[in-house]
Amino acid sequence: MRAAIMLPSLYVTITILSNISSLRIITVLGASMDAGTLLYPFSFTMRDLIHRALGTMAARLTILLATVLNTLAFVVFWIVSNVPPDPQVGEQTEFGNVLLPGARIVLGSTIGMCVSELIDTEIYNAVRRRLGERHLWARVAVSNAFSIPIDSFLMVFIAFAGTMPLSVLIEITGVNIIIKYIVSAFSLFWIYGVRRGES
After folding, report:
1. Distance (Å, whole) CA 184 – CA 41
2. pLDDT, tens digit, for every residue of 154-172?
3. DSSP tally for the chain: helices H, then strands E
4. Residue 107: inside a domain, yes or no?
5. I need a surface site. Which of 41, 63, 88, 165 has the fewest CB within 10 A?
6. Is 105 helix (H, G, I), strand (E, B) or coil?
7. CA nearest to 131, candidates 79, 105, 181, 140
8. How far is CA 119 from CA 58, 107, 151, in A?
9. What is the pLDDT of residue 11?
């Protein structure tokens, strides 16, 4: 019961915070990347934990719920930014200036997340069917090996194509993939921390 509440809640929270953080482009060791990459990679392993503890259907539903809630978050930001401000306080443009320019980023992040995570789920299932209960880590490693590049490519090119040079887009994509692989490797063995409940 606790897993059914905590794991999907953590997954959705990570995706929303990551999408908001992606509005800022930063440099790490001299390379460009969106700040959401610092947190988002944990969502891949979190999804695998949901899959193992709660089953395939729960994983798919959590991905779709996260997609809806991320979209809803942007809609709420847009509405709040366009409601007339209290004249006694002033224009308060900072809120909209920070959050509204991210429409394409939110779109790219959300599409990338939804597509890559659903693909990840199917690959995870295929590895599970082939290996059974042996080598749990392989499910995470193999599914993430495919889904991480898909997510990074979709997110970066939907969000930023036409706004910066192709070389920067390629650099951001490459850095995102590398960091996501590193975080995925770091969190790989979390899969052993949840009880099997998958179907």
Report:
1. 6
2. 988 998 888 888 988 898 8
3. 7, 2
4. yes
5. 88
6. helix
7. 140
8. 15, 18, 10
9. 93
Per residue in 15-72, pLDDT tens? 989 888 877 878 877 777 778 888 888 888 888 889 888 988 999 999 999 999 988 9
Tokens 């979390």 locate to 190
Any idea which residue has 């099997």 for tokens? 196
- Residues 180, 43: Cα–Cα separation, whole Å: 10
4 CB contacts (<8 Å, ≥6 apart)?
53, 54, 58
**Is residue 95 assigned to a domain?**
yes
- Residue 51 CA to residue 127 CA, distance in Å, equals 13
- Separation of alpha carbons 55 and 145, rounded Å: 21
Q: Which of 68, 58, 28, 2 is nearest to 183 (CA)?
A: 28
Number of domains in the chain: 1
> What is the rounded end-to-end Cα distance, in angstroms, of the chain?
16
- CA-atom Rg of the chain in angstroms: 18
Cα 62-130-7 angle, rounded to 5 deg: 20
CATH of the domain at 25: 1.10.1760
Tokens encoding 4: 């059914």
26 to each of 32, 60, 90, 92, how far by Cα in Å?
Answer: 6, 31, 31, 25
